[in-house]
Amino acid sequence: MDADKPLRRVVIIGGGFAGLYAARALRRAPVSVILVDRAAHHLFQPLLYQCATGILSEGQIASPLREVLRRHHNVETLLAEVVDVDPVRRLVIALRPGGSRLEIPYDDLVVTAGVRQSYFGHDEFAAHAPGMKTIGDALAIRQRVFGAFEMAETAATVEERRRYLTFALVGAGPTGVELAGQIRELATHTLRKEFHRSTPEDARVLLFNGGPDPLASFGPTLSTRAAAALTHLGVELHMNSLVTNVDEAGLTARRADGGEEHHEAATVLWTAGVAAPPLAQAIARACGVEQDRSGRIKVGPDLTVPGHPDISVAGDLMSVDRLPGVAEVAMQSGRYTGTRIRRAVQGHRPPGPFKYRDLGSAAYVARGRAVVTLGRVRLSGFVGWLAWLLLHIAFLTGFRNRLFAVATWLVAFTREIRPERAFTAREFETARDVYAAIKGGEAAKHAVTRLPGAGAVPRQTGEREQPGAESARATRPEGRRGVQGPPESPGPRDSGASGGS
Ligand SMILES: Cc1cc2nc3c(=O)[nH]c(=O)nc-3n(C[C@H](O)[C@H](O)[C@H](O)COP(=O)(O)OP(=O)(O)OC[C@H]3O[C@@H](n4cnc5c(N)ncnc54)[C@H](O)[C@@H]3O)c2cc1C
To answer: Where is the composition biased (Basic and acidic residues) (predicted)?
Structure first.
């Protein structure tokens, strides 16, 4: 290889399962990788419900991306939210926290930005019914759930107490089922003896689902068993019920017979449906490609965007072969994409089309009860729960997190203790998103981005060169360009003034 030739730049948008596996597949490739994520951590979403219900801490399910990728010397991680892509100039356009703008040139682009909660056209429900996709969501749910038990304790009337002790969940997929089971468990075990005026065991958990069965994707046998386990726990199943309205008093659902019923509940949680984020629409528009009904980007058999062989989409955000949005699809598609790019750079034959190997799925129903599919094998009850435990230990990111999670589970499952019950008194909805642009002249103060190793980015006036910094720059891998403008404009492209809204 020509030593003077700059390394090919691969930009990965998103450090979820797909982005992480793509970066790992490129570890020994002669490329420089920039992984840009709006969060600084990789999140293990399948355990969000345990964070929300006080079993695990945020740190046990989220690992700093810098730490996870610290041994990947060709990978740089950046904190920014990507808002657009310019396929002609090969630029990724992002906002830094605070709203100033960042432009990142790429040779290959891998989009793995995942999906977000969908309220099926009723985004106004979100204020009353948080979804569960991020650490922020899990902490908001933790606040509402534990806060509701506190409010029940000081309720002025029986009706008010009943309202605070009613939890309504929308969606009986794995997340809804897991949350429903957890809330009943914490009411009947963890909190049972801690309150004096109210009785946590009286907590009602209502689970609403448009379809006829909970956990329908696990097939009729496991779905029936899950329904029985939930009923045994005291979860009230409202199947074939379409939620038509959510407000501060609770929700309204339409039954299969057409009748509508309002259910009073102080806490409503939403786990039904996903939609692509606005970035997908921006990419589809810029590349002239199709999106499916959920807004996911349609890709070809090699997971590239039709007409743009330098842009791939992997994980939840890709639409191909009706594959489900699960972690295993994300991992395999991310790894495939990283490998495909590595082979191309090394001059090897491209791999065949992407083929997903279904390794099964698992859902936790209650302590000692889970349902698991592994190929043709169907497990439930205690055996299913053991399989669930092993699968999650194996896939949880980072050895430290695995160790701590196992230790916490030992305590939580044997002694009914939930160590992570702290919640803040601040309303989560009022917290400003760090990517909302700073308005007016404020943004100008943040006009220049300075990034370590970015040769084109000027240092702040008066900033002292650290001893050895010059030589450190000189020893950086060849071609590892910093975040800067496109080749035709050598100066920094970061202009805070145009930071969006
Ligand atoms: C509550 C819950 C429970 C789940 N349980 C299971 C389970 O038990 N088993 C299973 O197989 N699957 C489960 N899943 C699904 C699984 O987690 C996803 O399929 C998987 O995380 C998808 O990986 P991804 O990399 O495509 O997206 P994600 O993991 O969502 O990662 C996307 C990343 O992109 C970043 N990002 C988003 N937009 C931008 C932007 N504009 N700019 C920069 N960065 C951006 C995000 O911060 C995030 O880090 C669950 C999901 C949830 C939400």
So the answer is: 461-481
Q: Is residue 62 part of a domain?
A: no
- Distance, CA 300 to ligand 1 centroid (Å)? 21
Place of tokens 């975040």: 483
Same domain? 147 vs 200: yes
Beta bridge partner(s), residue 480 = none
Spatial distance between the Cα atoms of 75 and 192, rounded to a whole number of angstroms = 49
CATH code, 421: 3.50.50.100
Pocket test residue of 312, 326, 433 for ligand 1, highest count of atoms within 8 A of CB = 326
Same domain, residue pair 304 and 183: no
pLDDT-derived band at 86 (thresholds 50, 70, 90) equals very high
CA distance 312 to 110: 5
pTM (2 d.p.): 0.87
Same domain, 407 and 321: no
137 lines ligand 1 (CB under 6 A): no
| ∠ CA 47-49-51, rounded to 5° | 80
462 burial (CB, 10 Å; 0-12 / 13-18 / 19+) is exposed
Count Cα atoms within 13 angstroms, Cβ side, for 57: 12
Task: Let me know: does 438 contact 98? Beta carbons within 8 Å.
Answer: yes
Ligand 1 within 6 A of CB of 499: no
pLDDT of residue 2: 59
| DSSP calls for 316-342 | GGEESTT----HHHHHHHHHHHHHHHH
pLDDT tens sequence across 138-188: 999 999 999 999 999 999 999 999 999 999 999 999 999 999 999 999 999
Which domain covers residue 24, as residue numbers?
Answer: 8-38+80-115+276-358+437-498
